[in-house]
């Protein structure tokens, strides 16, 4: 069978220029291992994962495959203490939903709102995954170098040229250019996220034209045609999240999987209501009502803690109204396939697309 | 030299799968003729052009080349009369700018705000351009057929699958899928334009997957890599507007050309302040201040008449503050090249990109 290969594939030790995007909860060790075993790069979304659990998850993958995988962290600066008035407002805004799901009233969210980043970074240094990526910010150059010195390739994500250039100056191995179509959290860290809503096609081409570091394209890519398109733009790999949400190996709640599989066009929007930072998700009752009421929210990631019980209870009960159904704009192109089959399909489609393009040169 | 060809090229009688997007004022007969002569499809943006002028422009192109060209019209329903209070509010909102440019105070805008659409359509039937396209709406099926019966290929533009399906049901020859990156007016006509801000990569792939009619991709395409990318997505041609704005043959005001050539990333936004309908333009003082003040505006196209003197005077004086610098999100990739050279460059880049893609299959 024909091969599909970029120089970044060699650098990361993967067969295919396809990366399963890191997604907290959806990216189980089963999914990551299945994707990596199939020749793409599986990725953990460990933003909210404690170091010990990161270790266990890495071991679980390594028990299944010796192929490379990626661990992703959120590296935004932790917020200060949330004042009492802000807590009250945000708690009141969701109290009715707590009642509706028969949960005890929401309690004030206490710091720390998320695992300690430095402890997570030390876990990366111990786990030494083939690839480490970060989102929502940057890390100091010496840290990038220290991690690279352990044999780990490092990638960061950018929503604009300025952020990409900064990542290049830090010496990362690759840059994830996240277009406006992308599901999940906007990676913006130097500019207002709402000012950097550039479509994947435009953003990838602009970033590729402005940096020498290999670029990975993210946002709206769901099939081989999308992969071939971003390779045409000069990306060295495609980063697909939504496409993997419905996989049986994915840990996404059933409501999320069905939400993606049954989604119609224009179903997503960018909301801060689940976590406190803008992220693209399928609009549901929670998002719509919180937006309509202009309901207050806590800063990231405190809001994510506050909505956590709600999301968990709703997921358990199969109620999509309160599940964070993160998804990109091309979600209607999603398919319910086991991860290995999806990777094989993406590979075959990409090759087919390249053949189709070659035939245009008559 | 290698050829680059899709079946839509045959259908439209053009050598290359490249269409210069219609742009009122920028698309002069010189530009249209130069683009068509170079093997792409030149297009008039005749939205605001009277039938007689449409005739003259077509003759001017035909005196230069016998190759196909496209005439584009806006086909939105004309608004009713604008009431006195709305007029006062909108006039007051721009009166200061009129003073600043030493123009007499703005006068109430009177109907008709734009050329009569039926007269324009009759002009199309007389001119019989190789291609007729419409934007901002649709036209009845019998009109599509009547125009096609004259040997004219007909295309309409869509910002979502629903609009594309409707165009297919009308029997158009091709559908322009306009992604969120695109400069100029959003083509939405069945849904709220702000709900249909889907990136080009996602939108083109979704529309291609949902209709059988050939799709032309628009939005954020500035070079051969962008063209190859949309061909990968299954589009049969690429539609580039912003790339042609700086051409010497373009009638865009110098301020507009320089605005595009010197634009930085994230410089554009979608505004209704120039025409009354949402359109992507480079943010300037007029847009920023009108947005900040939440200044009232007239309905489309009455607002376009109201801002007309302002735009013209500013363009003449070389003041970018009041010029409608319509541009897409990838404007920073623009180049100042004569039209024929730009088309030749796009062709060479696309072929080079297809070669690069073929080499990935090692």
The main pleated sheet of chain A reads as: 8 strands, parallel
Q: Find the count of extended strands of chain A (DSSP E, 2+ residues).
A: 11
Uncertain segments of chain A are none
- The DSSP helix count of chain A reads 14
Query: What would you report as the Rg of chain A, rounded to the nearest angstrom?
Result: 20 Å
Instruction: Work out the largest interface and the residue count of each chain.
Output: A-B, 55 and 55 residues
Q: Give the rounded overall mean pLDDT of chain A.
A: 97
> Helical percent range of chain A?
40-55%
Name the shape of chain A in a single word.
globular
Distance between the termini of chain A: 24 Å
Classify the oligomer.
homodimer
Q: Which structural class do the helices and strands of chain A define?
A: alpha/beta
Could you state the order of secondary-structure elements of chain A as H and E? HEHEHEHHEHEHEEHEHEHEEHHHH
**How is the largest sheet of chain A built, in terms of strand order?**
1-9-8-6-5-4-3-2
Query: What fraction strand of chain A?
Result: 5-15%
